[in-house]
Amino acid sequence: MTVFFPITTPKRYIAAVLVTIICLHYLFTITSDGSGRTSPFSNISERTGERHSNDALSIPDYNNLQSYPNITGPRANATFVLLARNSDLVGVINSMQSAEDRFNRYYNYPWVLLNEEPFTDEFKERVSVLTRAPIYFGLIPKEHWFQPDWIDEDRARAGRQKMMAQRIIYGGSVPYRNMCRFNSGFFFQHELLQPYRYYWRVEPDVRFFCDLDYDPFLYMQEHDKVYSFTISLFEWEPTIPTLWKTVKDFIAEYPQYVENHNAMDFLSNDGGKTYNLCHFWSNFEIADMNFWRGEAYSAFFEYLETKGGFYYERWGDAPVHSIAAALFARRDQIHFFRDIGYRHEPFQHCPSGEQWTKGRCSCDQKDTFDYTQNSCLKKFEKLFA
Ligand SMILES: Nc1nc2c(ncn2[C@@H]2O[C@H](COP(=O)(O)OP(=O)(O)O)[C@@H](O)[C@H]2O)c(=O)[nH]1
Ligand SMILES: [Mg+2]
């Protein structure tokens, strides 16, 4: 005879269903963290279904600055710098959002935005909401921006036309040349930047891929660094046909400014005779403005300026800054921020391994400029081999 529960009996049926529901509920409460995700690591209070009012404290309170340890620690005298036009608004928002999300919402370093035209109210309003840090909008003095009167415009025009014929990017653009000259010799003289020593340059439409859990400005200060980069590459030679000769003339005239432990071997494969076109990509820079404001760089920029190459050719601030940092600073004062994931079209630097995991980087480790054919990183690393 087969023994079986006569589940057709209504009372017994209800009891069985109830027991099943209670068992299922118990199973659910011991395996759930309450947010819908099951986790074997749920804490005791969650296992028992209790909820404490301070449970939320396990989520960092970003609105309470005191709760973030670095805020109370030492800070550098530093700021972000962003040069932009009103028409760059969307790109500026993208870049600032990225820098704030990945770093500055914890540190609240100020932002200084510069333009040769007044920023519109809409521009100011849209970017001001992106940060809780102080934000300043500055107008660039005319003499720091526009082509000086002593430049021979016929010669400058001929230079532009030649470059346009060679299809060189921005070859025919005067505003681009204004920008390169301003970034080379004037931004650090702007009155809004006078209070600061270190700056982090940001451009529209760049991206920071990784969390940064330390202060790179303090890193610069504590390790006596003056210049840093994430990407280095070769310059487009037709934009600087006479720059290296000018540099060599300057060195011959002012040998006292050349640092003994310099990075000439990053710039030249033959001890300085010729320029190998390596430079640091200056759309990302964290650097010490005291270096630009110092005697060596001031003399250097003045020398370049008198040659007119910012307008007769198209000298970029990247080779100008790079050459100066490589020659007038010690090579160990130049730093490669390997852990800062960064993109400016069309290249990016993506950290790898532990740095990638720790930084919660959103970039593809395989997509990094570091050791590609057009990168100068190997040359930089060889300086220290
Ligand atoms: N205010 C202002 N900013 C400019 C001008 N031209 C370029 N910039 C800024 O200078 C930086 C470099 O210019 P960008 O167009 O990004 O050049 P690229 O990165 O070399 O292609 C960016 O921060 C631009 O917003 C200009 O005419 N006026
Ligand atoms: Mg750019």
TrEMBL record:
<protein>
    <submittedName>
        <fullName>Glycosyltransferase family 15 protein</fullName>
    </submittedName>
</protein>
<feature type="transmembrane region" description="Helical">
    <location>
        <begin position="12"/>
        <end position="28"/>
    </location>
</feature>
<comment type="similarity">
    <text>Belongs to the glycosyltransferase 15 family.</text>
</comment>
<dbReference type="GO" id="GO:0000032">
    <property type="term" value="P:cell wall mannoprotein biosynthetic process"/>
</dbReference>
<dbReference type="GO" id="GO:0016020">
    <property type="term" value="C:membrane"/>
</dbReference>
<dbReference type="GO" id="GO:0006487">
    <property type="term" value="P:protein N-linked glycosylation"/>
</dbReference>
<dbReference type="Pfam" id="PF01793">
    <property type="entry name" value="Glyco_transf_15"/>
</dbReference>
<keyword id="KW-0472">Membrane</keyword>
<keyword id="KW-0808">Transferase</keyword>
<keyword id="KW-1133">Transmembrane helix</keyword>
<dbReference type="InterPro" id="IPR029044">
    <property type="entry name" value="Nucleotide-diphossugar_trans"/>
</dbReference>
<dbReference type="InterPro" id="IPR002685">
    <property type="entry name" value="Glyco_trans_15"/>
</dbReference>
<dbReference type="GO" id="GO:0000026">
    <property type="term" value="F:alpha-1,2-mannosyltransferase activity"/>
</dbReference>
<keyword id="KW-0812">Transmembrane</keyword>
<dbReference type="GO" id="GO:0005794">
    <property type="term" value="C:Golgi apparatus"/>
</dbReference>
<feature type="active site" description="Nucleophile">
    <location>
        <position position="285"/>
    </location>
</feature>
